[in-house]
Amino acid sequence: MQQFGSDNYSGICPEVLNAIIESNAGSALAYGNDEYTEKISQKIREIFECDCEVFFVFNGTAANSLSLASLCQSYHSVICHEVAHIETDECGAPEFASNGSKLLLASGENGKLNPTNIEELATKRTDIHYPKPKVISITQSNEVGVTYSIKEIKAIKKVADKFNLKIHMDGARFANALVSLDCTPAEMTWKVGVDVLSFGGTKNGMAFGEAVVFFNKSLAEDFEYRVKQAGQLASKMRFISAQWLGLLEKDVWLKNAKNANDMATYFSQAVENIDGVHLMFPVDANEVFIKVSAHMEVELKKRGWIFHAFIGGSNRFVFSWDSTKKRVDELIKDIKEIA
């Protein structure tokens, strides 16, 4: 039965699966020298309206860790939110990949960094005994399902320029944020100062594979060596690249993200007025965090629902490209009955 514990639970969307099958015909050059990789790299440049550098890795942890390592030396630090995925869910990989650069953690409403808390960390210490701040990392949409507005990213860019900091964007749910904000990929990234993007595909209908997109091309120097050293260079890269073609052509990625967002909105609106259910954060994308009684948690699990505990005693429900209204209605019905 379809569950809403994570958008990683979903299968491969049909367009991506067909692209994999088509790419399987015959032979192709290895290690990214194939026609599929060249074609999707150009497609990504077209989508972002710039001559960016594009690389492919297997997963989001690698995308985040290797891109941050390209921006930092071991004596540098990365400013991020205290609930950022790079802090809470990557097992120290960003620090490992960069030989020890430190994560500096900020608080902030709704899981978002703001210029004030960034500046506080950037100026906390300037002596040689403390790791020098070098990068700001933001997640879009973020770990509590909230998006940064274009205005907010511009404000972060302003403080980044003030302290000579680079900006990394963790875009595991980039498409969901894009649909939510109704803007172009360029408007949400390099036009507002993002230097490098971890561009997520797995949560939006792919089997595996993420892209690392450098808008500041000078920062991509020797990045392919980082990818190889980290065991992230796919020998049969066409099977990652073809997936991206299936996802990005004909705007499948936006259609998938829209369904996920719509189901999250539908669910949140249906449960927000039920006694004993409290929405913890705004619902901007495809994640909904609700706080319920211990009794309701137990009863929902007895009925077979899988969900995860999160910040402040909330429970996370995540909707995906293939979430159906019928199945969401079954969850809503159970919540109402238990309440």
Tell me the layout of helices and strands:
Elements (H helix, E strand, L loop, with lengths): L13 H10 L11 H14 L4 E5 L2 H12 L4 E6 L3 H4 L4 H5 L4 E5 L8 H8 L9 E8 L10 H13 L3 E6 L2 H8 L14 E5 L9 E5 L8 H7 L8 H11 L3 H20 L6 E2 L7 E5 L2 H9 L5 E2 L5 E4 L6 H14 L1
Helix pairs in contact: 1-10, 2-10, 8-11, 11-13
Give a quick summary of the entry.
It contains 13 helices and 11 strands. The protein has 339 residues and is of the alpha/beta class. It has 2 domains: 13-250, Type I PLP-dependent aspartate aminotransferase-like (Major domain) (Aspartate Aminotransferase, domain 2, 3-Layer(aba) Sandwich), CATH 3.40.640.10; 252-338, Alpha-Beta Complex (Aspartate Aminotransferase, domain 1).
From the 3D coordinates, which CATH architecture of the largest domain would you assign?
A: 3-Layer(aba) Sandwich
The string of secondary-structure elements, in order, is: HHEHEHHEHEHEHEEHHHEEHEEH
Work out the helicity level: 25-40%
Largest sheet: 7 strands, mixed
**Could you give the distance between the termini?**
23 Å
Name the CATH class of the largest domain.
Answer: Alpha Beta
Can you tell me the overall shape?
globular
- Mean pLDDT across every amino acid position: 97
* Assembly category: single chain
- How much is the radius of gyration in Å? 20 Å
CATH evolutionary superfamily of the largest domain: Type I PLP-dependent aspartate aminotransferase-like (Major domain)
Strand order of the largest sheet: 1-7-6-5-4-2-3
What are the segments in which pLDDT stays under 50 over at least 5 consecutive residues? Answer: none
DSSP helical segment count: 13
Question: What is the fold named in CATH at topology level of the largest domain?
Answer: Aspartate Aminotransferase, domain 2
What's the total count of β strands?
11
Structural class: alpha/beta
Strand content: 15-25%
